[in-house]
Amino acid sequence: MRLDLTARNLEVTPALRQLVTRRLTRVERLLNDNLVSGQVVLSLKKFHHIVDIKLHARGDHLLHGVGDASSWQAALKEAVEKIVHQAERIKGKWDGRKRRTSKTDATSATPAPRRRAASAPPEGQPRVVRARRYAVKPMTIEDAALKVDGGTDQFLVFRNASTDAVNILYRRKDGHLGLIDPEA
């Protein structure tokens, strides 16, 4: 995050700069480094320490907090607490959008309407879904047969340990196992 630190009626010391950056790391962690830039204005009016923080997060979200106290620590804490409250609300909305698409579609009694992707096939054609959980592991045909018999899967893609070719072992309708060997 790019941070602009401005001071009015005072000089910014390294300790004061460190205090500001240390307090803002909490907001950065909360938003998972989605902060783009920030502007902090420190003002000193007699005995009032005023901290004005404006942060810009992804998606054109602006977080704003003002703290007014008798010390820099208290004013900064007050301003950051206001920003943390806003950041938690934004984070909840982001997480809610992620959760809504996956959990509500799978757990609700009435299915949610499907959204068509830009590359969705025309109506009536089957959609191809890429499965990533099938790793092609080297094993013998006997080991693959034991895995298909013992599991709930209807087929198993594996690399034949003796020929080093990719084979498919599947359960046939008659209860027996079929082997697809592309090089045979």
C-alpha Rg (nearest Å):
29 Å
- Estimate the mean pLDDT confidence: 81
The poorly predicted ranges are 102-106
What is the CATH architecture assignment of the largest domain?
Answer: 2-Layer Sandwich
* CATH C-level category of the largest domain: Alpha Beta
Lateral strand order in the biggest sheet = 1-2-3-4
CATH fold group of the largest domain:
Double Stranded RNA Binding Domain
Count every helix, treating DSSP H or I runs of 4 or more residues as helices: 3
Whole-number total of structural domains: 2
Give the helix/strand class.
alpha/beta
The number of strands is: 8
Q: What is the quaternary state of this protein? A: single chain
Strand content: 25-35%
Helix content: 25-40%
Largest sheet: 4 strands, mixed
Q: CATH superfamily assignment of the largest domain?
A: Ribosome hibernation promotion factor-like
* Apparent shape: rod-shaped
The SSE string, one letter per element, is EHEEEHEHEEE
The termini sit apart by 59 Å
Using brief descriptors, characterize the structure shown.
single chain, 4-stranded mixed beta sheet, 3 helices, 184 residues, Double Stranded RNA Binding Domain, alpha/beta, SHC Adaptor Protein
